[in-house]
Amino acid sequence: MKLFNVLIGLTLSSVKLDDEQIEGLLVSASHLCTNLAKEASFLAALKEELSAEKLKTLFSVASTARAQSSICHIISTTSLDAVGDLYGDCLGFITNCSGLSENIEMQAQVSSAHKIFLSCGWFDDMFEALVGFLQGVAHGCHVKFGIELGKQRARSATRMKTKSSLKISSKAKQSNRKKSSNTGEDRFLEDYAIAVGIAWQIKDLLLSENTRNAMCGSRTLESAYLALKVISEASVVHCVQYDYLNTYPVSAYTTLSLHMALHNIKTGSKNSTQATTMDLTLDHLLQCADKVFSANNNKKSEFLSESDGCQTDTGTTKQISISTTVKTFTEVLKFIVDATAMNLTLHYQERCLNFTTETLKFITANLREHAVAQLQLTEEDLKDIFVCLKSSFTYGAKLLSILLKTREDSSLPQAEAHSLVNELFNLIVSVEEFLGYGYGARFITVVQPWVPDLILALGSSFLLKETPSEVDTYENATFSSWFSILAKIELCELRETGSDEEIRNTKDFSAFKRIVEAMSKLLKANEKILDAVGVVFLNCSLNALKNKNLDILLGLVHFVCVKLVGADDGEWKELKLMLASLGEIYAKVGIEEAEEICESEEDRQKLYSAKALLEPVWTSFIYNETRDSMDEE
Hints:
Strand content: under 5%
Radius of gyration: 31 Å
Low-confidence stretches: 154-181, 301-315, 627-633
Number of strands: 0
Shape: elongated
Distance between the termini: 103 Å
Mean pLDDT: 81
Number of helices: 29
């Protein structure tokens, strides 16, 4: 106890100390306080030592975030009675929070201030002040972007706030604007940055049971939800055009929605009697994403607008926009995965799968755009993008995995699931193609744990089909770009003397080949799954034949008949779906068909090569069985 008094005394002494020394003294005092407060006698002595006047003086000399955080920790640990005059100081900590999401020291300071508010019974006033600021930023989004403000059952939280809270909040806002321009755009940017800090705080408050319960019981909870809804809409819909928009409002919005759903708390929306908060949030975010995708498609991937307030179309700005957009979509995707794991997205599964597919298409298209434009990105830029890619793939694969495990195959949205798994494979090859082998190899380590799920999703449309008559024809087969990459790899292996360009292209996808090899190994271990997945490759071969793309036809047939199942392999006998599809291909690659399909001698050779691969299987398992059946009759 004496040591604690000495540390506080030195901090308050007239001896000139620098900021680091004061910080060291207060951090030490904070650690001592934690241990001393465990004893009732010491706790009483601590309360006696720390008067209101001393506390205010300590705050005045503590200039660093860590020093101020230590004082807040001391106050919350000892539950001091003499802290009434410090309300404004503590509220200043939490409202002056621009840059909070990236400042660890400031985060510790704010978290300590939260504990003071909770221990002193000020939580409601604190939360109302934060929500009041969010409402102001939501109104700014309404003015700037034309976003509709939500309506609530109760009176406005702004009206409910006490005069003191309004005064403090206003004072905090003015202090943040002292050194800045008075233009409306500058004020919006400053306020939005503070809203990002408040969003971080809401997520932090939801981590602790005590603060979470206090927030869920607050009269301004609905106001917080509706304000975050508006700010999140601005952050999602305009994330492509404005690189200052942040993911934290979206993250706070989705996290708050999950907890409101768990506590069965509804909002005042007109539809809330029919739909849960989770339904409303999910529907809202998916609509926001649809607007982005629609605008992006209309502009043919030219995702930077030339409207006022946007950055110039430089390589750096493109990178920032891609990174910001993907991070934003990843937050939505994380929310979808969490909600799906909690079985809260039953009525939205098709839309969730479509959103994930469109997100991956957006990423792949912009990776290609970067490569074509030959934009110069720093290694730091590439690392940032790569982190986004890993997260997007992981959440997409996890969503498929959850749906495959929790839904019966017959109830799984098969077309949407099939489209998503194809986009996941497209992303795998795109990373290696556009970022190089180094990133491709590292990406494979992320992919490998999900290979079994990718296989099941790829064959999900056929796993319940027992007879060949149930198999869709090639006209309905989905053809994705990764099939063409696989076909090119197979063609280069098939040709003993490939050109330099062909050899180079094969090496470019050596990381992808590892995934293909892992898939082949797993497929050979289960005939039923092999049949369901193998028919996908054969149906794509039929699709290629229909479109006279004989390179892809030959490459995929080679993969199936050499890599997946050998021509002399007795295993073919059990692969009913694959045999039916193979027989259909064989019937279309005869001499008469060749005259119609082939435009050159080279095309004719490719067609005959494909037929040569198919013929042993057709002869052994289709022609002979058909002949034996006719003999028996």
